[in-house]
Amino acid sequence: MGLARRDYNRAGTRSAAFPAAGISGPFAFTIAAMLRALAIRHFAIIESAELEFQPGFSVISGETGAGKSILIDALGLLLGDRASAGQVAAGQGQADLSAEFDLSDQPDAGAWLKDQDLHEDEGLIVRRVISAEGGSRAWINGRSATIRQLAELGEKLAEIHGQHEHQLLSRPAFQREILDRQVDEEILVEVRSTYQAWQQASAALRDFERDCGDPAQLELLGFQHRELETLALQPGEYEALEQEQERIARSDEVRDSLARARAALDDDAAPSARGLLLEALAALDRVAGLDPQLTELAKLLGEARINVDEAIRGLERAGQDEPDGAQALERVNRRLEKCLDLARKHRIRPEQLPALTAELGERLASLGHQDERREILRNDLDRAVENWRCAAAQLSQQRRKAAETLAERVAERLSKLGMSQSRLIIDVEPRSGAAPAPHGHDDIGIRFSANPGQPPQALQKVASGGELSRISLALMISARAQLHATARVFDEVDAGIGGETAHAVGQFLREAAEGGQAFCVTHLAQVAARADHHFRVEKSSAAGRTRISIKSLNEAEREQEVARMLGSRDSASSLAHARELLAAS
After folding, report:
1. 186 C-beta neighbours (distance < 10 Å), count
2. Is the N or the C terminus of the chain less surrounded, counting Cβ atoms within 10 Å?
């Protein structure tokens, strides 16, 4: 295939080669966290194959039955899907899957990696190994990772739409996110901030009632505060003690260095800096009156002598002030040990003890005026709830307007995708008396009806895999400017369509690729002709074993493949039609 090999070693890091990936399946996805390479070994009927990707719209085509679902399955496993031993190629001990992403346009994934201490400046490498005996292992940027971590990261890298474990459109949280991308960011921030304020007010009242209602707790609080006050650790003192400990531990070295420096500057038994300076100054004084320049030099030597004398006195004082190492170290160590004991007791860092002392003091003071303090905290909580309700109501109003507008835009695109008789409704239903939540008080859902006369129902209950993919595509295009750029997989996006609908699917996928990447495994010439890059999947059998491979097509090969998809690669009319489609795209 002409691809540079970049294998992953056993730890999941990239070395000089990369394992190959053979691919097929009816799907499409867009990527701004750009997928650079995908590699598969000993997975299903793939022995070893590889793909490297470029920006733009790419299609993968091939004969019927060439392994259409393998790429989605492999990608899903790299995004955290459940693995099974049956996915390992027959006769092999394990399947090995790897993917490399460029995260330069995906800040959310980069932030998650940094938070998990899995970040690498060069990008992202994900690897998963499935054992034929059951179980699997995963790595993120060469570090061992859990499948849960893989799934969390996967949600930031890809959205898979269709009949698949990663079908996001059926998830209420994803439906809410799509809608919330259409409202003002300021109101979303306001709802979250008022929710956090409510949490803080609620916790403050809860802690207060806990302390007041339990005499033993109040007594414990007083004891803890007295312990901390007895320690009386001041801000910055712990850090200063650590520095003093290190200094004292090296006190012998300090005293020796001071003595050496003192001897070098002024030693009667050997030439010293002060003695040599005095000789130089005496020699120059004899001739200084002969030349102004010599006078200036004599002045400089005089200043140097004064500085040396001052340095000698400073060294003498430092030597006298240097503490007795053993006694001073014992004193500092005792103080540090007391700090560490209390810090462990309260499960905080030692340098946080002064702040805890102040905090417990404030809590004890507030408990001395319980009724007054309780009233203040209850008023704070009521005010926080009311602020949240006001913000949530504004968000709900914006959501209802955005839902109508988005549903209209989606309906226009669904009509072009061969679903003109369908109905899609985005519901926004406020929950009466709902407790504060970070996303407001609305239940958001998408209902769908494919045919007139059928009542709209929950999307996942009535839409087929192909319909889900096309609905997802219409939603993604309609909301594209407001959505985070991630990999979007549209499973079965061209299932059961043709003609103008196929042209529309191809056009929408091409739009999805603008500024990033879009991929579609397709059997439709109209979709394939829209692509910037074209790959063909080929299946072969030898020695009783079936294998697939994939090839990047040049212009001539692409014409032949599009002609084959139209009916016959050897037909002059099919070739002419293929050239027309490619030229029109």
Report:
1. 9
2. N
* Cβ-based neighbour number of residue 312 at 10 Å: 17
Q: What's the average model confidence in pLDDT over 27-33?
A: 49
Question: By three-state DSSP, how is residue 399 classified?
Answer: helix
93 band by pLDDT with thresholds 50, 70 and 90: very high
DSSP secondary structure letters along 333-360 = HHHHHHHHHHHHHHTS-GGGHHHHHHHH
Q: Assign residue 418 a region (left: φ > 0; alpha: ψ between -120 and 50; beta: otherwise).
A: left
Question: In DSSP terms, which residues pair with 137 in a beta bridge?
Answer: 129
Q: Regarding beta strands 517-521 and 545-552, do their DSSP bridges make them parallel or antiparallel, or are they unpaired?
A: unpaired
φ, ψ dihedrals at 474, nearest 5°: -65, -40
Q: Give the chain's mean pLDDT.
A: 83
Higher pLDDT, 204 or 272: 204
Q: How far is CA 381 from the centre of its chain?
A: 34
> How far are the Cα atoms of 88, 92, 540, 547 from residue 544, in angstroms, in the given order?
17, 16, 10, 10
How many angstroms separate the CA atoms of 55 and 63, rounded?
Answer: 25
Q: Which of 138, 119, 140, 116 is nearest to 14 (CA)?
A: 140
Tokens 């790429």, residue located:
71
Q: Give the residue among 441, 4, 364, 17 at the shortest CA–CA distance from 195.
A: 441
CA atoms within 13 A on the CB side of 347: 0
C-alpha span between 276 and 268 (Å, rounded): 11
**CA distances for 444 relative to 180, 461, 471, angstroms:** 10, 16, 17
Q: What is the pLDDT of residue 530?
A: 92
How many CB atoms neighbour CB 6 within 10 A?
A: 19
